[in-house]
Every structure is written in structure tokens, then in C-alpha cells.
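DM from R.C. (forwarded with permission)

"hey, sorry to bug you on a friday — could you get me a structure for this? deadline for the figure draft is monday and I only need the backbone to look sensible"
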Amino acid sequence: MLDVNRLAVLVRIAHHGSITAAATSLSITPAAVSQQLAKLEREVGCPLVDRHPRGVRLTAVGEALAAHAETIVGQVRAAEQHVQVLLGQQPTQLTVGTFASAGQTLVPPALARFRREYPDVALALRDLEPPDGYGLVTSRELDLLITHSYPGGTMPDAQGLRRFLLLTDPLRLALPADHPLADRQRIALKTLADYEWISGGPGIPNRVCLEHLAQQAKVNVHVAYETADYQVTLALVAAGLGVALVPSSLLDGLGDRRIAVRTLTGSPVARGIHLAHHRQPNPLALAMIGFLTRSGNR
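My reply, with the result:
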């Protein structure tokens, strides 16, 4: 039978992408991680990682085993938590994963409310860009994962977790205040075909969304400035360098007069903000789910 502790090490390697980072997360030395990995490879009978200058990459066997290991490690941790509850010991920590823009708007009020209600609980937040994070919930390194979906994209399989829509976040058109089309409240995408756009790089969800909308409108859009950071996007718009689609949650209370916020014509366009968690979350996770839900309804 494979050793559970070694499987836990493999999961950390898979999540962090390097021996050193996995060792740091486990509070052990890289040499100890390498030893555990070597023993697991001997148990399995083949290499589980390929080493490269920037870290390690799991082999096909390593990826398959890591997927099973996430579930196994998660179940062991769930069993430990259940035993603690039966012995009268309540959970003492909660870890939430979120992406950057939700971390700016949705998350802070919920964390603040949780801190007031549960001052003795160790609360942690991890920055994760979708689609990352599902495996961390499966292995119970995360209690909750806040993730998103954009039009034109597909969400990964929930991997046996419960996932629900927390908030619909409309996408608005941000353009320089002196833009020739800024006097219109509603603007057709086809009228923006000759202007430079600001968006994420190829494959980034907001770029996939923009290309999807352009395909529907039968126009080509030119992305001149690539950034996945919406604050950088807004700074570039304010500087007069291009136009962009930006979530409404990041535009509420925007006081920059250099930016005009308008609506695209046609069907409403929005990203979904979702929450993923175990099917039987512990009491602390349930409390945070409630706080996040209220924050999303504000």
C-alpha cells in the first residue's frame, strides 16, 4: 500500500511546482521532500516528476497519481477533523482561496465580519488565479475557493466539490473620457473594431471572452496592450491608450474623470463569480459562506 504521507508530499509538489516550494509549505527541508519523493517513486516503480531549471513537472503517471492523492489526503484530513469534533475540539483555522479582483471587492468585508465573529480562529487567504485551486480544496489545503467564469470559456470539472454562483458581475466598457464614442451610453462592439484594446494575453479568460464576443459580432479586435491586472487596465485606459471590458465590481465608486464607463449593445455580458467547497463543510466554512453570500448581495 502506498504511504499516505508520501502521497501528501506529491500533492504539495503538484500544487507548488517545485521541490523547494513544496518543502517550504510543509516546513521541512528540500532534501526531505526529495527523499520522500524518491521512496514513493520506488513504491510506484517509475518516475513521477521531470526536473527542469525552474522546478519540476509531473509525468503522466505523476499527474494521475496526484489526482487520486488529492482525494486520499483530503479524506484523511476530513477524518482527522471529524475525530476532533467528536472529542469536543472545534476547527481552529480557515483558509480561503481567491483571485485578485474578488480579493479587492468581495472578500474584505466577509473576512472582516468573520474576524469579528471568530477572533480566535487562524484565518488565511491565498491568491489563486482561475482555474487553479480546485485540487487544493479537494486535498483540504483550502476550505473555500472563490473562482470565476467568463462568456466563451469553460469551467473545469468541480471534482466532486459543490460549486455555486455567488455573484453575477456585469462587464462594462471602459474608454478614455475624450474618446470619440464616449458621448454614447450604449456602444456596439463593431464600432470599436478600429480602436486598440487592453486585455489579458491569449488564453486568459477575459481575452477569451473578448474574442468570443468579437466572433459573435463578426468583427476583429486588436489587443495592443496585454495585462491580466484590471488596475493596470484602468490606468492604461485613463492614459488614453485603449478601451477595455472591465467588471462592474471594480468600477463602483470609480472617481477617475479620465475614464468613461459605458454599456455594450446587445445581450448583457457578465462574468460569474463562484464559490467551491466540500459537500460537507465544517462550521467555520459554513459561516464564511454566509458572509461571502451577504457580501455578494450588497
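R.C.: lifesaver. Residues 169-270 form a domain with the D-Maltodextrin-Binding Protein; domain 2 fold (CATH 3.40.190.10).
me: no worries. The longest strand covers residues 162-176.
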